[in-house]
């Protein structure tokens, strides 16, 4: 008779948590209702998962994914995030998904 291998309950719970977070991110990306978006955001925040919308921050390729650029004549805006195209998420200090952003780029003369 072969003994059944039992998973560590903590490992199983962490795996299930990760699966639920991925499902919530998927649902949040597709939600059309403001109320649903707010509820999902609140629920994720309650377990330590925050949404990342870095509008107005300086673009950092280690933290953000560039989805496109927006021309600007203002040198102060060059390299600043104009808008977030797709929300990013962090589980406490660990990035789950980098936000996809549009970055201001100085117009070439």
From the structure above, extract its key features.
single chain, 109 residues, alpha+beta, Nucleotide Exchange Factor Grpe, Chain A, domain 2, three-stranded mixed beta sheet, 6 strands, 30% strand, elongated, GrpE_head
What is the gist of this entry?
This protein has two helices and six strands; from the N terminus they run H-H-E-E-E-E-E-E.
Strand order, largest beta sheet: 1-4-5
The fraction of residues assigned to DSSP E strands is 25-35%
CATH first level: which class?
Mainly Beta
Task: Work out the number of β strands.
Answer: 6
> What's the shape?
elongated
- The residue-averaged pLDDT reads 93
Distance between the termini: 78 Å
Keywords: Chaperone
Pfam family, one: GrpE
Protein name: Nucleotide exchange factor GrpE
Task: Provide a descriptive summary of the structure in words.
The protein has two helices and six strands, in the order ααββββββ. By secondary structure, the chain is α+β, with helices and mostly antiparallel strands. It has one domain (9-106): Nucleotide Exchange Factor Grpe, Chain A, domain 2 (Roll). A three-stranded antiparallel β-sheet has the order 1-4-5. Strands 2-6-3 form a three-stranded mixed β-sheet, with no helix packed on it. A hairpin with a 2-residue loop joins strand 4 and strand 5. Helix 1 (9-30) packs antiparallel against helix 2.
């Amino acid at each position: 008779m072969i003994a059944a291998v039992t998973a560590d309950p903590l490992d199983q719970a962490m795996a299930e948590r990760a699966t639920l977070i991925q499902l919530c991110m998927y649902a949040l990306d597709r939600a059309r209702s403001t109320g649903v978006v707010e509820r999902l955001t609140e629920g994720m925040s309650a377990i330590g998962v925050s949404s990342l919308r870095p509008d107005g921050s300086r673009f950092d390729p280690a933290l953000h994914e560039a989805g496109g650029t927006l021309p600007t004549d203002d040198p102060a805006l060059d390299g600043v995030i104009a808008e977030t195209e797709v929300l990013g998420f962090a589980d406490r200090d660990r990035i789950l998904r980098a936000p996809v952003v549009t970055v201001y780029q100085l117009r070439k003369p």
